[in-house]
Specification:
Blueprint lengths: L1 H7 L4 H10 L4 H13 L15 E2 L6 E4 L9 H28 L10 H16 L11 H11 L2 E7 L6 H9 L2 H10 E7 L3 H10 L6 E8 L2 E9 L4 H95 L11 E7 L5 E7 L4 H10 L7 E5 L4 E2 L22 E8 L4
Parallel strand pairs: 1-6, 2-6, 3-4, 7-11
Antiparallel strand pairs: 3-5, 5-6, 7-8, 9-10, 9-11
Helix pairs in contact: 1-3, 10-11
């Protein structure tokens, strides 16, 4: 990470780490990619497209410009004498080359490192012709096609024939002229490679050049990457500029049309996206309303069920209470006769100001008094019985203090008593 910082000037450690991770910790690839980015050059290490673009090379409207080499005046006698020998020589040479392909395939037909082929050609070109030249696209032919399609730009392809007699003159006096450099850098992407490299050889097989130097202008036309111009032979700088301007002017309408269509598609896509977002927002709002309505319905239903459960519980409680009252009433001992000397006459004053009178036996427990009052409809559910003289609460139910409630006589009741019933239901 520190080495990458020193070489590229990146200050953030996190950015350095992220850059190295993107390049599988290949420091050379990371540094080269960063330098390309700073120079505005396409990345060398971008992954190649998953599906290489097919280039249309058979358009009948393709513009072709060929510069023929000046031929010396032929000596017709010598030409006719040598014609049979030349025909035989070249025929046998073609047969030999054809047979040789089956025995030993051309090593250039196997492309193993296309980016390496491009970088190697650029280094060779700069060593031989200097660093003043059009900006080479530092990527594969397929990457250049994809970038030209994505950016809607012209792609100028140059196939370098190392062994051709016009190559040196073209590179020095045409390709590296400042006016040519300015035109190419401002209006085009420029991809070049030697045909001695597997990547260059593969492209030459696809474009089918006839002679060198060879230039092809490729652009997006009718939604296909198409060769719209071919320039072959030793072309001079002014002539090259005129030919490139002519080709670009003749085909500019296709790029403008494609830009308009692409903009329209983008606007349609944006509009559709906005409509989808509006629909989703409306759908979410409707779903939220439905969710709230559902929650309200469920809450209302729960409340109704709770009320119903409370009613049922209250009914069961009242039913149980009534059954308990009836059971207590059935279990009460019979009322003593008024003439019984051991009987006690008790007048009960209820909370509703009504009075109830009944006789009990002195020997009966105070629990009997409580059971009698409990069995009455007028009595509260929970109550206590109080005496006035002296004022006290009678222990009618078992407690820790009185586990066995006392009898009426033990409680100190006289033959006639007035007892007060105190309502404890609210408590």
């Amino acid at each position: 990470i520190l080495l990458l910082q020193d070489l590229t000037g990146i200050e953030s450690m996190d950015q350095c780490r992220h850059t190295l991770e993107q390049h599988n910790w290949n420091i050379e690839a990371a540094v080269q990619d960063r330098l390309n980015e700073q120079e505005g050059v396409p990345s060398v290490f971008n992954p190649p497209p998953s599906r290489p673009l097919q280039v249309n090379t058979a358009d009948h409207r393709i513009y072709s410009y060929v510069v023929s080499r000046p031929q010396p005046r032929a000596r017709w006698g010598y030409y006719f004498i040598m014609l049979p020998f030349r025909f035989t020589y070249y025929t046998l040479l073609d047969i030999f080359r054809f047979a040789l392909r089956f025995i030993r395939p051309d090593p250039r037909s196997r492309v193993t490192d296309p980016v390496g082929d491009i970088i190697s050609f650029i280094h060779m070109f700069e060593e031989k012709y200097g660093r003043i030249h059009p900006v080479f696209y530092q990527g594969t032919y397929s990457q250049a096609l994809n970038d030209a399609k994505r950016e809607l730009r012209f792609l100028l392809v140059y196939l370098h024939g190392d062994d051709h007699q016009d190559t040196d003159e073209f590179c020095r006096n045409t390709l590296c002229v400042p006016e040519v450099i300015t035109l190419i850098n401002t209006r085009m992407l420029f991809w070049a490679c030697s045909t001695n490299k597997p990547e260059g050889y593969r492209v030459s097989q696809a474009l089918r050049e006839n002679t060198y130097p060879f230039l092809a202008v490729i652009m997006l036309k009718d939604r296909r990457m198409t060769v719209v111009g071919r320039l072959e032979g030793l072309i001079q700088a002014d002539d090259l500029i005129n030919q490139l301007m002519f080709i670009m002017d003749a085909n500019q309408t296709y790029l403008v049309s494609e830009r308009l269509e692409r903009e329209e598609r983008n606007q349609t896509q944006v509009l559709r996206q906005q409509q989808d977002e509006a629909y989703l927002a409306s759908l979410r709002a409707d779903q939220e309303k439905e969710r709230k309505k559902k929650e309200e319905r469920e809450m209302k239903k729960r409340k109704e069920e709770e009320v119903q459960q409370q009613k049922l519980a209250e009914e069961r409680r009242r039913q149980t209470l009534q059954e308990e009252k009836e059971r207590k009433l059935e279990c009460l001992p019979p009322e003593p006769h008024p003439d019984d000397p051991d009987s006690v006459k008790i007048i009960f004053k209820l909370p509703n100001d009504s009075r109830v009178e009944r006789r009990f036996h002195f020997t009966q427990s105070l629990t009997v008094i409580h059971d009698f009052l409990f069995s009455l409809k007028e009595s509260p559910e929970k109550f206590q019985i109080e005496a006035n003289f002296p004022r006290r609460v009678l222990p009618c139910l078992p407690t820790e203090e009185w586990p066995n409630p006392p009898t009426l006589q033990e409680a100190g009741l006289s033959h006639t008593e007035v007892l007060f019933v105190q309502d404890l239901t609210d408590d």
